[in-house]
Design brief:
The chain has one domain (7-142): ph1033 like domains (ph1033 like fold, Roll). It is 21% helix and 31% strand. It has 4 helices and 6 strands, in the order βαβαβββαβα. The protein has helices spanning 19-25, 36-45, 116-121, 144-154; strands at 7-12, 27-30, 51-56, 63-76, 100-115, 139-142. Strands 2-5-4-3-1-6 form a 6-stranded mixed sheet. Strand 3 and strand 4 form a beta hairpin. The structure holds a DNA duplex.
Length: 160
DNA sequence: GCCAACGTTGGC
DNA sequence: GCCAACGTTGGC
């Protein structure tokens, strides 16, 4: 039996990847995460079926732009072994990989950006990690109620 | 193991 | 572009 669905927020800068690209790709590998806390989530906690808030950081405005779903559990990030690649890590070995990735699939692109300012102004989201000062972690756990609230904010017409 | 220096993130 | 926050590195 699998555990209950968990929810996550994953950040990416538009210069690196966008939800429009995910729309075209349908599925993508969430690779290049080089932070140990985020790595632990990828390796140990993020599972197939989990919900993902796709967050565009360093954007105008920054915010959640859609929903994705995990379609492959954590596995060693292939780029850590690619010499010359910007994600190459010479200290990582195939037998003891340091970095992990998951695969995600687009579920829906929001009709509008749910901006960080809006998230911060929403009382129900006052404890959400991304609204806290200095929350730089690129993968963050999200509660179901936070996930549902943000999803509704992205689809104002659909919930009328 | 401490901690200063340095690098990165990311909002503004 | 600035800079606060935070993570990592490396000398000791």
């Amino acid at each position: 039996m699998s555990r209950a669905t968990c929810y996550w927020l994953m950040k990416v800068e538009p210069a690196a990847y966008t939800i429009d690209q995910l729309e075209r790709d349908r599925t993508t590998t969430w690779e290049g995460v080089r932070n140990y806390k985020a790595r632990n989530y990828l390796r140990d906690e993020i599972k197939v079926g989990d919900g993902v808030l796709f967050y565009a950081s360093n954007a105008d405005p920054s915010g959640v732009v859609g929903i994705a779903q995990v379609v492959r559990d954590g596995y060693p990030d292939p780029y850590q072994f690619k010499r010359g690649h910007k994600y190459h890590d010479p200290k990582s070995t195939e037998s003891d990989p340091r970095w992990y990735a998951v695969d995600i699939r687009l579920v829906e692109k929001f009709m509008r950006v749910v901006s960080l300012a809006e998230l911060k102004a929403t009382r129900a989201l006052k404890n959400m990690m991304v609204t806290q000062r200095g929350a730089r972690l690129s993968i963050q756990p999200v509660t179901k109620s936070e996930f549902d609230a943000v999803r509704q904010m992205g689809h104002p017409r659909a919930t009328q």
